[in-house]
Design brief:
binds flavin-adenine dinucleotide, 30 strands, 46% helix
Length: 1011
């Protein structure tokens, strides 16, 4: 009996023979893009520039813009293309009306290679040609990830229309194989769920399923009537579980339970895929009606690895290409073995994967008419032809649509075709021998593992393609990953934490002074802003007496704590981080109730607190050891730091654990004793943070917890002679008072008070004429309305260039109108309540001011009746001098300003008292450079949201009236809590000098700590 491998080789060789009968290049069309692709494959930088240029081109309207971008992207590089660009640009400047259209035409042609038609009419013409070649079709509407429900409705209508037209056209078409045709309807439509619902949140699959089912039912019903097939495509990992759940839910409904013509995609590059497929098969058996699975490797490998790299989480995909290949083969077998319940389709251009599927089918006695091969339009034409010739069923995946919405698809195809590890490139561009291409991937996994070690750090091919991700050195800081609410387990944990937090409503929390729990007669309630009748908990109110006690306790503790080795202090913070991690869901749940944060926002806050602890611990280790200033004979001069004394930490409610924890942790780890005061609106969060430090073993008095009125204890402590440092984050009004008051030296005061003062912002984002509007809208909406606009980093002024204004506004308003507003206790809510009644009234007043000053362009009509809900509001015709453009509102209110050009945009953006965050959406490298250099903001964000700073990666803080220039989560932050000191010793005796001094020495600690 022949082994499977030799059968695969034989079949693969046969395919190659047939392929070679009609030699074809990687790109079926020669010319301009053939050359570009060849260059891309050999020059990574050029590839990046090319893909970026291709992505921006369809949105450029004027010839001059095209020429300008061409020059910005390509001139000055060393890629062999730039001389051509140079000539091109010179010619183009002379005759832009010819050159730009020619360029646009070339890129359109490049795209058209992968797009089967711009409209149903064009696509049908393509399908007819394929029919003559015995190739079937599945049609997909280009464009994904809609930003509003209006756009989602348009897509649903497009799918419906397409279905009708395809059914009409193919009435008389028959199955090319004429056997088992009932399993493979002629009309086959591929649907992407992200195009059908704009408010999808991984945390809220039930909400997504409810919305998507409403949109999909009519389509499925009609498909059933017309005898058509609907396939659920698979997109990024974040949507995978929802897509699977939706598929199973809707197809178990009575009306679809017996309908066999629906399918779903399984991506073999996912580690989860085997489990998912088993689960689907089991579900299919229970349902009792066959369904289809298209097995692919997966089109989002680069996206998934980039995203998880940013989040510090494990990528959901395999990191070695042969692992994906081997898994594809494993799942191929599983599909065939369950052929009675699942009809397989294999979506691959890889001859090894295809030949393997053929061989396994044969081994298991499965007739070739019971499965099909699916390949993409515009790719691997020779393989399609070969498969047809061999008597297999072949279907082509045909995208339909315009270039602009198709850009994401086009870039995925270009990436796939130029990937170092892709089969098509290996076969058609690099002529790798057939024997190599047909090797068993399982064997390659082993050799690839060995290869990873070799290539690391040397730019080996694995590494270039991201196959081996760098392991970070053990002593370097790593951010804690965010909780992924994609998983049911995380959703369940959060639900259960919310239930538990509810049970503890009304709990009373003491002050904590000198290691003792202290109660007073006054308790302050902290209410749920989404339901103000609910009291989340009570804080004990401290008065001046307790404040005095806290200062004494801190002062006493400081004298010992300051001499504690920094390693002990760093380890304390690491224990705090561990406890925060352990109690993560519990703390997030409390934030949801106490300050109205959405789940992911609350989790982000806890993550930030954890990061502050681990980051500052690491930074303290860096700063703690005295460092030799210079190497000179006979003298040792060591520079090091001492703590300042007693630090008073005053935190806001909007990041109720992160900011409080960050400032307190910085104080404690640097050897100061700290008194922390949470905001009056987030006492419970503060009290729980104190418990965490206590559990971590903070010595008595080193951290003291005082809740109470800022005007009483806050003012008292700011003025106190024994307070050496004030770390404040909050409003400008209070911040400036603290700044002023701290400048006065009181009788008996030891130190000049150091003030860390982080205040508000009036943050602007500028939208360039060539900006990617999908991203612009998505990020602007999130930056302006996420957590109800109550982040000091939130977007409050959107500055639009005249040229773009109408296009942006139309989409912005419909995106705002689609937002989910509600009680954040429910998953997937984007806009919850504002913090309390005074804030609610103040924001409403600003809205009234806005109505007088400017034009109310949008305001949500419905918000929950109870709670402090403010409808998301957008004003247009806003001028820079208006109050709504100058004053911080701290709520879901966005002002839109129209400007002529980038000069004016910068002038407007910089024309405020504040300089906290700012942003820019653009695809012009020159304009991006200009904004990077000129925008007045402590944190400048390009082509992303202007909120969500990450500790260590985006040190956060502003200047002008936004703050004193300190950067929380940055390398120099701890220096604010320290005084520098230098110790110089003459080490020579009678002219004899010892050898070289150590670069670092142990701390100057006395008495020396016992070992
Ligand atoms: C008809 C059809 C429909 C499709 N529908 C979908 C869909 O709904 N959803 C979807 O996501 N994709 C879909 N795809 C796209 C498909 O995922 C890619 O075209 C496919 O992955 C390319 O695989 P291949 O077997 O043709 O080529 P190969 O060259 O053998 O494989 C390339 C693939 O290997 C994987 N890979 C690359 N580098 C690595 C690495 N370092 N480690 C691990 N794995 C790696 C990636 O998935 C990459 O795409 C579809 C493809 C076809 C043909």
């Amino acid at each position: 009996m022949r082994s499977l491998q030799s059968d695969v080789e034989q079949r693969g060789t046969r395919i190659f023979e047939l392929v070679d009968k009609h030699p074809e290049r990687l790109f079926s069309k020669a010319g301009f893009y053939q050359r570009l692709m060849a260059l891309s494959m050999h020059d990574e930088r050029f590839k990046t520039q090319l893909f970026r240029f291709v992505a921006v081109l369809p949105s450029l309207r004027r010839s001059s813009e095209i020429i300008q971008h061409l020059e910005e992207y390509f001139s000055g590089s060393n890629d062999g293309f730039s001389p051509l660009v140079g000539v091109g640009v010179r010619v183009a400047r002379l005759v832009p009306w010819i050159s730009a259209p020619v360029l646009r035409w070339n890129v359109s042609e490049m795209a058209r290679q992968f797009i089967a038609g711009r409209n149903p009419h064009e696509v049908i013409a393509t399908l007819r040609k394929r029919r003559a070649q015995k190739i079937g079709f599945t049609v997909d509407v280009l464009g994904e990830a809609v930003v509003s429900e209006a756009e989602a409705d348009e897509y649903a209508a497009l799918y419906g229309d397409l279905l009708e037209k395809l059914a009409q056209e193919t009435k008389d078409w028959t199955d090319p194989l004429g056997k088992n045709a009932e399993l493979f309807p002629v009309v086959n439509l591929s649907v992407k769920i992200s195009a059908l619902y704009s408010q999808m949140s991984p945390a809220a699959p039930a909400d997504a399923i409810a919305h998507l089912s409403t949109k999909l039912r009519p389509l499925l019903r009609r498909a059933r009537e017309l005898g058509a097939f609907i396939n659920f495509d698979m997109e990024s990992y974040a949507l995978k579980n929802t897509t699977l759940e939706l598929f199973k839910t809707i197809l178990t409904e009575a009306e679809f339970k017996a309908w066999p013509h629906a399918g779903i995609v399984i991506q073999a590059y996912l580690r989860d895929s085997e489990g998912d497929l088993c689960d689907l098969i089991e579900w299919g058996r229970g349902r009792g009606t066959p369904f289809a699975v298209r097995l692919v490797k997966g089109a989002y490998w680069d996206y998934e690895t980039t995203k998880s790299g940013q989040n510090g989480s494990n990528p959901p995909v395999f990191l070695q290409k042969p692992e994906s290949d081997a898994n594809f083969e494993k799942l191929t077998r599983m599909l065939f073995e369950n052929n009675s319940v699942v009809t397989p389709a294999f979506g691959s251009h890889n001859v090894r994967s295809i030949a393997h599927a053929q061989a396994v089918a044969d081994e298991l006695g499965i007739d070739r008419s019971r499965f099909e091969f699916q390949l993409l339009y515009g790719m691997a034409g020779a393989i399609k032809r070969a498969l047809v010739e061999m008597g297999y069923r072949v279907r082509e995946y045909c995208p339909i649509g315009e270039l602009l919405p198709g850009m994401a698809y086009l870039v995925r195809r270009l990436l796939e075709n130029t990937s170092n590890e892709g089969f098509l490139r290996a076969k058609f561009a690099e002529n790798v021998p057939a024997r190599e291409l047909l090797r068993d991937p399982k064997e390659l996994i082993k050799s690839a593992v060995a290869g990873i070690g070799d290539s690391r750090g040397h730019g080996g091919s694995n590494q270039r393609n991201g196959a081996s991700l760098h392991a970070t050195d053990s002593d370097s800081f790593r951010n804690a990953p965010l909780v992924s609410f994609i998983y049911k387990d995380s959703q369940d944990k959060m639900q259960s934490a919310l239930r538990e937090a509810r049970k503890r409503f009304g709990e009373k929390h003491p002050l904590y002074i000198g290691g003792e729990k202290i109660w007073t007669d006054n308790l302050t309630p902290s209410v749920n802003p989404a339901e103000p009748t609910e009291i989340v908990g009570y804080g004990t109110e401290a008065g001046v007496d307790e404040a005095e006690r806290a200062v004494k306790a801190a002062r006493a503790a400081f004298e010992k704590w300051r001499w504690t080795p920094f390693e002990e202090r760093a380890q304390l913070l690491e224990r705090v981080a561990d406890i925060l991690e352990r109690r993560r869901y519990e703390l997030s749940a409390v934030e949801v109730f106490e300050v109205g944060k959405a789940w992911s926002e609350a989790d982000g806050d806890i993550r930030e607190a954890i990061d502050f602890c681990t980051f500052y611990a690491q930074q303290m280790r860096r700063l703690g050891r005295p460092k030799l200033t210079q190497q000179v004979p006979g003298e040792e001069s060591y520079h090091h730091y001492w703590p300042r004394g007693v630090a008073f930490v005053i935190a806001p409610w909007n990041f109720p654990i992160a900011i409080l924890c960050g400032m307190a942790a910085a104080g404690v780890v640097t050897g100061n004793a700290v008194i922390m005061k949470p905001s009056e609106q987030s006492i419970v969060c503060g009290a729980i943070l104190m418990q965490v430090f206590e559990e971590a073993g903070i010595p008595p008095g080193v951290l003291n917890f005082l809740s109470g009125h800022g005007s009483v204890i806050g003012a008292h402590l700011v003025d106190h002679k024994d307070v050496d440092l004030i770390a404040f984050t909050g409003s400008r009004e209070v911040g400036l008072k603290i700044w002023e008051s701290a400048g006065i030296t009181r009788l008996g005061q030891r130190e000049l008070k150091r003030v860390i003062c982080e205040m508000g912002g009036k943050n602007a984002m500028i939208v360039d004429a060539d900006a990617d509007l999908d991203e612009t809208i998505m990020y602007s909406i999130y930056s302006a309305f996420g957590f109800q606009g109550q982040k000091c980093s939130a977007l409050s002024r959107l500055i639009l260039l005249e040229e773009n204004y109408d296009r942006v506004m139309e989409r912005l308003i419909s995106a705002a109108a689609s937002l989910r507003i509600g009680n954040p206790e429910q998953p997937g809510i984007m806009v919850g309540p504002v913090i309390d009644e005074p804030a609610y009234r103040r924001i409403l007043e600003y809205i009234e001011i806005g109505k007088k000053e400017a034009t109310l362009a949008y305001q949500a009509k419905e918000v929950p009746p109870h709670g402090y809900f403010i409808p998301p509001t957008i004003f247009t015709d806003v001028k820079p001098n208006m109050r709504i453009a100058r004053e911080e509102i701290f709520g879901p209110v966005l002002s839109v300003l129209k400007v002529r050009d980038l000069d004016e945009a910068l002038e407007v953006a910089n024309g405020t008292d504040y300089a906290l965050t700012g942003g820019f959406f653009s695809r012009s490298p020159d304009n991006i450079e200009r904004i990077k250099a000129r925008l007045e903001a402590g944190n400048v964000y390009i082509n992303r949201s202007c909120t969500g700073a990450i500790v260590g990666r985006h040190p956060f803080g502003g200047f002008k009236m936004s703050g004193s220039g300190t950067k929380a989560g940055g390398e120099d932050y701890l220096l604010n809590f320290l005084v520098p000191r230098v110790v110089i010793e003459n080490t020579s005796r009678h002219g004899f000098a010892p050898g070289q001094s150590l670069e670092y020495r142990d701390e100057f600690l006395w008495p020396k700590p016992r070992q």
